[in-house]
Design a protein that fits this description.
The complex is a heterodimer of chains A (402) and B (324).
Chain A lengths: L15 H4 L24 E2 L18 H26 L13 H9 L6 E3 L5 H6 L4 H9 L31 H15 L6 E6 L6 H12 L4 E7 L2 E2 L2 E2 L20 E5 L3 H16 L5 E6 L22 H4 L3 H12 L4 H24 L18 H12 L9
Parallel strand pairs in A: 1-7, 2-3, 3-4, 4-8, 7-8
Antiparallel strand pairs in A: 5-6
Helix pairs in contact in A: 2-3, 2-10, 2-11, 3-8, 5-11, 6-7
Chain B lengths: L2 E3 H15 L3 E5 L15 H5 L4 E3 L4 H14 L2 E5 L10 H7 L3 H4 L9 E6 L14 H5 L5 E3 L4 H13 L4 E6 L7 E3 L13 E4 L4 E5 L3 H13 L5 E5 L2 E3 L3 H11 L2 E8 L4 H13 L8 E5 L9 H4 L3 H13 L1
Parallel strand pairs in B: 2-3, 2-4, 5-7, 6-7, 10-11, 10-13, 13-14
Antiparallel strand pairs in B: 1-8, 6-12, 9-11
Classes of the chains: A alpha/beta (402), B alpha/beta (324).
The complex binds thiamine diphosphate.
Thiamine diphosphate (TPP) sits at the interface of chains A and B.
Chain lengths: 402, 324
């Protein structure tokens, strides 16, 4: 082999999506993604009816202020998702993994927690982190990997954590947070503290080792934990039918002695109801609940994914009609508690907020060179001190854009 | 010969072998209809169907455990792990089972399969889409470990791996998946395992490397040449069992060596290579063997280019070693 044929490649840093796909049109029947009508099965918790009213039998009884706050929160999350996608397309951030279509599941479950409770997240729940009080600025700092990022620019975008918000540290490996949530809640139980932990995960994660370990430990030790499965229909390109042969994911709790509940994940009130019941059960000492929120990922898996390669856009129509935000807005309209003027004002407010935090995050410098060696251990050992000195005295890499 | 990138060459190898041998099957997350998140298995589902190109549930332990069972039955599975960073749920199956089957059964149950997985940094993937865990598999007796640097080798080494009687971890450097292009022989093309390539012959300093860092080493060598230092660059291609003869012959010629890999330094493959050189060529050394590697930190996001042992860090090591 000659050097000539190898003259190829010293790529600069290439964003994930540039390395990945040439989109290819699907050449075969699309996967039979779950149909939204499944939510009409009798066991599924539903509250918000087609006509925009609430079913009194299941209504969790949120106050108007609470409903409006959640609506505002969901609008903010959707606008943020859109902005982050744009920033990614413009090359200003490297990646985003969004929650389009899953806003009710994410905000409703977060809102059902008490302030003493904790979240062990997957990677798609920034809406829950913001709801719990993580500042939008810190979230954007993570998206830009800058010096103010709580994770010190060490993790990729959408991988953050906030102790103040009682929101655990996001990592990519699927399922790992499930057993950790169980252990956290177990510790609280051993200490007789009134704390419930909630773990988020996708339905793909129900195939992981940790889902089974988590349910089993939670069942055996009656742990005050809520295992919340966002069944959004897809694990990247793999449809939910490939993750289980059982009728739904909530059913998977049965064999572990953990009750499972399914709810309409695009119905904010149903999510609040199912999650709140589970939190109360846990707090009463009755143990864990597996909550399946039946929702749908309307976007690609992340900005690195082109969903057209495996699911035709047309198939999304029935799910678009179940858009959780539109359904909630319809409810507000029926109650005559929200106007177009208020909507406009809200959007302008969020827009101004976003403009400010993006500008701030973008102009914040990257983390210092030295910071790379901090926090590997509590104290810097000799070998890292040597390596840090070597890096300092050596030549610098080409500047690394955000 | 057709021009291909790494993705196309690996795809070509899989397709060729699946046509030739109907025992070969591919399984993993997203490998089927969509053809893998990097599109390495693109089109295989359409040609070979869902009995041979299988989208599995999301469980690496499940993928490798069932692949072992299939191999014991007589199939030749080529499972994909979506990123090497996600191989650890399968570590027990790989380390405790796959690596030991032949030995622990006295040869009664040889078990071979090829695990393909993208490896390394350079795509702004942070901790969990960038790591280089090769040493963690080399340290386990019974596994062969391969890492190609160019399309022709990728095809030839993958075909050799699939036909090898032992289990192979086939690490694909994702940084150069599309950037490394070259001519790839059509049809059957085997590059034997455990044979390194001397990519750039030279007299003064030996550089031992592999995967995506080869291009960084070549770039640094070009800069060194302008300072009158003539580097010999060795691409290991097979990381274990490595081609000791080629490495030692080169070091005996140059007396100076720099090992480059992006995996962390401590207990990395570089440490083993330096130890072997000390054992087998100590009296030929004119300078202490040097290592240029990733730091002993988790793989960072924003400071990725300060973490990786890119050309700008390799060059000073070459110069220092040459002038020692
Ligand atoms: C252990 C592990 N294997 C593979 C991956 C790659 N991966 C990232 S997300 C994903 C799909 C996850 O699907 P699901 O659990 O349903 O969650 P969703 O993304 O749909 O919210 C995969 C396979 C990973 N992050 N971790």
């Amino acid at each position: 082999m000659s050097t000539a044929t190898l003259a190829a490649a010293r790529p600069g840093t290439t964003p994930i999506e540039a390395v990945a796909p040439d989109p290819a049109p699907p050449t075969h029947a699309p996967a039979a993604a779950r149909h939204p009508d499944e939510i009409y099965a009798p066991d599924v918790v539903r509250v918000l009816r087609e006509d925009g009213t609430l079913d009194p039998a299941t209504d969790p009884g949120l106050s108007l202020d609470e409903v409006l706050a959640l609506y505002r929160g969901m609008v903010r999350v959707r606008m943020l998702d859109k902005r982050l996608e744009t920033l990614q397309r413009q090359g200003r951030i490297g990646f985003h993994i969004g929650s389009l279509g899953e806003e009710a599941t994410i905000l409703g479950s977060a809102a059902a927690l008490r302030s003493s409770d904790w979240i062990f997240p997957c990677y798609r729940e920034f809406g829950a982190a913001l709801w719990r009080g993580m500042s939008l600025q810190r979230y954007l700092d993570n998206m830009f990997g800058n010096a103010n990022d709580l994770a010190k620019g060490r993790q990729m975008p959408d991988h953050y954590g906030s102790r103040a918000a009682k929101f655990g540290s996001v990592s990519s490996p699927i399922g790992t947070q499930i057993t950790q949530a169980v252990g956290f809640a177990w510790a609280a139980k051993l200490r007789k503290d009134d704390v419930v932990a909630l773990s988020y995960f996708g339905e793909g994660a129900t195939s992981s080792n940790e889902f089974h370990n988590g349910l089993n430990f939670a069942g055996v030790f009656k742990i005050p934990v809520v295992l919340l499965c966002r069944n959004n229909g897809w694990a990247i390109s793999v449809p939910s039918e490939r993750q289980t042969a059982s009728p739904g994911f909530a059913a998977k709790g049965v064999a572990y002695g953990v009750p499972g509940v399914r709810c309409d994940g695009n119905d904010l009130f149903a999510v609040v109801k199912a999650t709140r019941d589970a939190v109360e059960r846990a707090a009463r000492g009755e143990g864990a609940t597996l909550v399946e929120c039946m929702t749908y990922r309307l976007s690609g898996h992340s900005t690195s994914d082109d969903p057209k390669a495996y699911r035709p856009d047309a198939g999304l129509e029935p799910w678009r009609r179940k858009d959780p935000l539109a359904r909630l807005r319809h409810h507000l309209d029926v109650r005559r508690v929200w106007s177009d003027a208020e909507q406009k004002a809200l959007e302008a407010e969020v827009e101004a907020e976003l403009r400010g935090v993006v500008a701030e995050a973008e102009k914040t410098p990257p983390p210092s060179l030295d910071s790379m060696f901090d926090d590997v251990f509590a104290e810097l050992p000799w070998h890292l001190a040597e390596q840090r000195a070597e890096l300092r005295k050596g030549p610098r890499a080409k500047a690394h854009g955000h | 010969m057709p021009q291909m990138n790494m993705v196309q060459a690996i795809n070509d190898a899989l397709r060729f072998e699946m046509r030739r041998d109907d025992r070969v099957i591919v399984l993993g997350e997203d490998v089927g209809k969509v053809g893998g998140v990097f599109r390495v298995t693109q089109g295989l589902f359409d040609e070979f169907g869902d009995d041979r190109v299988i989208d599995t549930p999301l469980s690496e332990g499940g993928i490798i455990g069932t692949a072992i069972g299939m191999a014991l039955y007589g199939l030749v599975p080529v499972p994909e792990i979506q990123f090497a960073d996600f191989i650890f749920p399968a570590y027990d199956q790989i380390v405790s089972e796959l690596a030991k089957y032949r030995y622990r059964s006295g040869g009664e149950y040889p078990c071979k399969l090829v695990i393909r997985t993208p490896v390394g940094g350079g795509i702004r993937g942070g901790h969990y889409h960038s790591q280089s865990p090769e040493a963690q598999f080399i340290h386990v007796a019974g596994l062969k470990v391969v890492c190609p640097s160019n399309p022709a080798d990728a095809k030839g080494l993958l075909l050799a791996s699939i036909r090898d009687p032992d289990p192979v971890l086939f690490f694909e450097p994702k940084r150069i998946y599309r950037a490394a292009k070259g001519e790839v022989p059509e049809g059957d093309h085997v590059v034997p395992l455990s044979k390194a390539a001397i990519v750039r012959p030279g007299e003064h300093v030996t550089i031992v490397t592999y995967g995506a860092m080869l291009y960084e080493a070549l770039d640094a060598s070009n800069h060194a040449a302008s300072q009158g230092i003539d580097c010999e660059v060795i691409d290991l291609r097979t990381l274990w069992p490595l081609d000791i003869d080629t490495v030692i012959a080169s070091v005996k010629k140059t007396g100076r060596v720099v090992v480059v890999h992006e995996a962390p330094k401590s207990c990395g493959l570089g440490g083993e290579i330096v130890a072997l050189i000390n054992e087998k060529a100590f009296l030929h050394l004119e300078a202490p063997p040097a290592r240029v590697t990733g730091w002993d930190t988790p793989f960072p996001y924003t400071l990725e280019n300060e973490y990786l042992p890119l050309s700008h860090r390799i060059l000073p090591a070459i110069v220092e070693t040459a002038r020692y």
